[in-house]
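Action item from last week, closing it out:
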Amino acid sequence: MEATQEKANVQQMAAGLHEKACEILRLSALTSELGLAHAFVDMSGHVRMFTARALPADTQYNSGNGYTYLNKVDVSLEFEDLYPDNPAKIYHRRLAKMSEYADWLKQVLAEGKVIKTEEHAA
C-alpha cells in the first residue's frame, strides 16, 4: 500500500512540473508575440528535459557571435529514477527554478518594455 501511495505522490509531482512547464510555454509565447524578447521553450520527452530561455528582441542569429541570454532555466522532469531517496526535495528545487523563471516572464510582460541587447549589457 505504501509503495502505491509513493508512486501516486511521484505522479503528482511530475504533474506539477508539467503544469509549470505549460505556464512557461504560455508566457514565453506571449512574450515573443508582443516582441518584448525572443523566448524559446524546448522539451525533450525521451530524456524528460525542459529548457526555456529568452534573448533580447534585437538578437542577430547569424552574426557568428555567441548569444547573451536574458534568463534561462534548464531542468530535468525526471527525478524518481535518478533520485529515489528524496524525490520531494528534488521536485521542490526544480519547481522553484521554474517558478522563478515564470515570475521573471510575468515581470517582463507587466513592464511591457522591449528588451534590447544594449540595454541588457548595461
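Closing note: Residues 2-121 form one domain.
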